[in-house]
Request: fold
Amino acid sequence: GSTATANEKQFIIHLQDIETKNSAPFANRTYHIQSGNNSFDVPSDGNGDILLDISPKEHPRPNTVIGDTETTITEAEVPDGYQVIPSSTKIYISVWFEGNDYYLKSIEDDRHNNPFAIDMDKRQLTIMRFPVAKLNLRVTDPDRNPLSGATFAIMDGSKTVAQLTSGSNGECSI
Reply:
């Protein structure tokens, strides 16, 4: 679970495996934040938490997530066994601003059906991460002997995504 604590001018992005809830693969890594014209790298802590400062759109500060501005997160290096954070992942925060004061008003769903969990009491957005899927194919003759050189096409509609050829053991994978 999360141990980072956010004040009213901060929020937390927590990263965890969608099924196991494990955060270890996302801990102590570098992530890149793009929020309006702000572009900066941030570390995750030992629990996969990234503590981020915010600023209002009316007075954006460097190295902050700007309120009411599309924000994205990418990884310097994708953890082994996990898919990249989808490019469709957008982070939206709303910042209340009056005079010289501001605070985090809300964290919103990204509208792209990416699996998020939002906990406003903790000021935390949890991004659920998916393991890499692996497809193993094996081709045999009617006597169950492996066949080498069999070709498989992985299709997305009419577009070929990958073409595989079985090895001497009759197997291939992607």
Residues 96 and 102 are 5 Å apart (CA to CA).
